[in-house]
## 1
Amino acid sequence: MKKIKVKAYAKINLSLDVLGKREDGYHEISTVMQSIDLADILEFEKNEIVKVFCSDHRVPEGEDNLIVKVINLLKEKYQKKEGVLVKLNKKIPLAAGLAGGSADAAATIVALDKLWNLNMSKEEKKEIALKVGADVPFCLEGGTKLAKGIGEIFENLKVPSMSLLLVKPDIEISTKEIYDKWDRLNFKSHHATFLVAQAIQEGNIYKIAENIKNDLELVTSRECEVINQIKEELLKKGALGCAMSGSGPTVYGIFDDLERLKRAYEDLKEVYSFVFFSKTIDKGLELYE
Ligand SMILES: C[C@@](CO)(OP(=O)(O)O)[C@H](O)COP(=O)(O)OP(=O)(O)OC[C@H]1O[C@@H](n2ccc(N)nc2=O)[C@H](O)[C@@H]1O
Ligand SMILES: Nc1ncnc2c1ncn2[C@@H]1O[C@H](COP(=O)(O)OP(=O)(O)O)[C@@H](O)[C@H]1O
């Protein structure tokens, strides 16, 4: 029986400017999104029924799972009667600002396109992706992108390779709540994206690290003081710069010295439940048939 295996990579936001609220409730943003080498592994196999098995029992296995959402949308659009078995080996922490669910959704689009011989165009894949979530179109493409709109209008960038330390405190964040609070709190955007994109174009990792900034950090760190604490610790341990990813609570630091990074990893893993040594990569998905 034909099986398709996909590695679905997480993302971080090297910048995130919130520019305003649209009529549909979504926010216009300007952000630099970056794939990193932390990935879920998914296996897809033809079957009569639809079933998702996940290694982490906190992930919903029914209709609320973004994988199931993609399967149902594709079944409807292409009038498919068959099902699929999906095994998800979850490595990307949940509700962490790292787009784990979105990466799984993007993986499902490319896997089912192959498994069910759908011959989807790039535009058709993107259309399904956007129906599932604002981060899913990025996860389909991956790499480094300047993203506008609600995060789906792209310009390609090429980032110099960077070593990162990710630290996630033990809290889960609701993206919707954080965007809602952004409106209520009336904060002003840092408008960091322009400077970060410029630094990337110059290939200057020191300038990138100096400018990384995320508007949503103002909201999340108000409730989770530990975010500022992690940032302080990362800087003290030699990070060139650090910021929160997405709606949080994961914080990442950029390092140019691997010895310092290793020491920071050893120290911080004693304190926080998820500490991960990572690097930037130039793709969002990897498919094996
Ligand atoms: C904040 C970001 C930054 O990359 O990432 P995460 O923290 O989720 O990783 C994204 O904008 C999140 O994208 P994603 O998580 O796919 O959002 P969705 O599922 O489409 O939307 C969840 C909710 O977030 C809000 N939302 C999302 C995106 C956006 N541009 N404006 C919004 O206001 C909406 O209230 C929506 O109902
Ligand atoms: N395949 C999936 N993997 C992880 N979470 C999922 C998935 N499908 C749906 N979810 C739900 O989406 C929520 C947030 O998803 P996730 O993508 O991990 O976070 P974020 O949006 O912060 O990047 C989870 O708490 C979970 O309830």
## 2
Amino acid sequence: MTDDPMKLGLDDAALAVHPTVFAADALAGKRVLVSGGAGGIGRAVAWLAGRCGAELILTGRDAGKLDSAVQAMTAAGLQVQGHVVDIRKPETVADLFAGPVTEAGGIDLLVNSAGGQFPQAAIDFSAKGWNAVIDNNLNGTWHMMQAAARHWRDTSRPGSIVNIVVVVEHGLYGVAHTIAARSGVIGVSRAVAVEWAPLGIRVNCIAPGAIETPGWRVYAPEARATYARSNPMMRAGTTWDIAESVIWVGGTSGGYVTGETINVAGGSQLWGETWTTGRPDWFQPG
Ligand SMILES: CCCCCCCCCCC/C=C/C(=O)SCCNC(=O)CCNC(=O)[C@H](O)C(C)(C)COP(=O)(O)OP(=O)(O)OC[C@H]1O[C@@H](n2cnc3c(N)ncnc32)[C@H](O)[C@@H]1OP(=O)(O)O
Ligand SMILES: NC(=O)C1=CN([C@@H]2O[C@H](COP(=O)(O)OP(=O)(O)OC[C@H]3O[C@@H](n4cnc5c(N)ncnc54)[C@H](OP(=O)(O)O)[C@@H]3O)[C@@H](O)[C@H]2O)C=CC1
């Protein structure tokens, strides 16, 4: 693992050529919207979808990051546009759908990869910190889901949503706020998978394990150094592992799957400890 947190994970050069199981026309004629599309996981999803023939709409808060993603993908011949959208602001999400999404001709797949949290013992959370994480990950994801569903209902077309969450089966310690938010996303995804089935909308979640990305910069280097050994496979996953699972479940290959949460986590939902703030003395062996 690199010491430079901005260089964590696969870069554009690697994502442009990474081998894939998908055919080059697997998403031909489709349009894919990726929130957090310039981040680690979202960027890999965007590269894979684009390499499979999809047109891309990427969103994020940081215009510079978005520009660098759009430039790299455009240089590789992909059809991509980027827009600054804060998913916590429902009015900017509505503007995205009324403007760029509609002008592009609509979308077929929404991937919600925007999100994040900070590591802190739950007992020390401030009300503001708790609210920031809930607002970002639960409310923000919901604003995008609802806007997409309205878009598909109003244009009488089917759609597919994939929400990137986290493994919630057992403790991901030091990030209880995000476990609460992501459990909410998983719950609402199950609920609307039923409610929106008559509209031809599928809703699924992917729960990544430890995936090396620039997002890991919020964790101390000593915490990050333990993540690879937090699962039975004793390695971190790659953003490509997540991207292929997203395209599988979000695309026609997942056409009979809805309301599911798929752990892509090296088995960390079954075994392993992840201490984002260090392992307390109580839990030290012997
Ligand atoms: C069984 C489990 C198996 C799985 C194994 C997985 C192993 C991997 C472990 C890691 C798991 C998850 C990894 C990832 O998700 S990495 C990628 C995600 N990316 C990020 O997290 C990006 C970084 N995070 C953020 O951007 C922020 O945390 C946030 C999401 C909150 C951004 O929102 P906002 O911009 O509103 O936040 P602010 O900076 O303005 O802060 C608002 C208040 O939040 C509190 N806060 C923020 N940071 C901290 C901190 N470091 N410590 C304490 N409190 C914090 C604070 O109250 C802020 O208000 P003030 O600034 O006024 O104090
Ligand atoms: N990496 C890992 O080990 C794991 C990651 N995850 C989850 O996967 C998702 C992607 O994470 P990853 O790629 O690693 O992290 P990154 O930090 O690299 O990417 C997250 C992206 O989300 C965007 N984002 C965050 N908040 C907002 C907001 N309010 N509005 C718009 N965009 C926002 C950021 O864009 P910008 O910088 O432009 O604001 C950033 O590019 C996150 O939800 C993360 O929590 C889950 C489990 C493990």
